Amino acid sequence: MNYALWADRVLAALADGGIAVLVMFVLYVLLFVVGGIGSMIIGAGEAAVNTRGEPGGLSGLFGCSTCCLFFILPPVSYFVAGLLNKVYLVSKRGYSVGQGLMKLKVVDAHGNLIPTGTAVLRLLCTVGLQFVPVVGGFLDLLWPLWDKERQTLHDKAVGTYVIKTG
Amino acid sequence: MFKRLFLSSRLSSRLAGIFLLLGLVVLRVAAWADASQVWLFGKQLHWGCWFKEHYGFPCPTCGMTRSVILTMHGDVHNAFLLNPAGPFLIAGLIVVGIISLRLPFVGLKEIKSRQLALGLSLYGWLFACVMLGQWAFRLR
Lengths: 166, 140
Known about the structure:
- Chain A is mostly helical.
- The two termini of chain A are about 15 Å apart.
- In chain A, strands 1-2 form a two-stranded antiparallel sheet.
- Chain A has helices spanning about 5-40, 45, 65-95, 95-100, 115-130, 135-140, 155-160; strands spanning about 105, 160-165.
- In chain A, helix 3 packs antiparallel against helix 5 (about 115-130) and helix 5 (about 115-130) packs across helix 6.
- Chain A has a domain at about 5-15 and about 70-165.
- Chain B is mainly α.
- Chain B is globular, with a radius of gyration of 18 Å.
- Helices cover about 75% and strands about 5% of the residues of chain B.
- Chains A and B meet through helix 1, helix 2, helix 3, helix 5 and helix 6 of A and helix 2, helix 3, helix 6 and helix 7 of B.
């Protein structure tokens, strides 16, 4: 099989990551609209005063860059975007939006398209690795550099391969 | 030459393990914490949680910094009380570091790397569950 180059996979991942970032922005706004309204209803936001002496509530709707969002929102967004991009599209036509741009295709050991179940498991493994702070995402991304079949860790987990079609 | 060295699975795997374990040692030496404060290189950090300040209740990762540092200093009990995900994270990172160091000896065969991939993914989901679970427990 003509395994995809690492650089092509990274570029495809960046394009797919862009879609996840859009989803993240939507979730980000939703979280703070719901959180702001919720805190106003229960009065928690009004009671809380930040370190600068400013009241809480909706005042900081778009100002958050807290660690919880940094750790949790990216994998969750990737999962939500991945249901369409990495499960539906990959199982139907063999490639996500980013992989289509780079002319890559996800196949099994026999070169066939992967079934939906395998695509779901592949996505769950990707997101699971992203939940491991510090090392998970990096190991997954860098693994093809030293793997002779240029598989990522989530490819290893479900026995898939990414090949170059163009 | 450099590319060949970098692409060598043994060296890459071992380097990843060394950097990870070294990072934990640096954290152990450079950072100090008690139940309410954190010091880095002897200077107290005045970090706060934006989420808690604005909404009046903690976020899922509240207490993680202190919990991780306390775990590294062996105070697992207080670390667990602050955020159970802290000791869980450190234990996982140490295991990953040791596995990375050992991989060159067991060989990066298909079955081994598949086990590593599945194990790491499962650990990631467990870590997320612990973090969100303790958050739900605190909010109840």
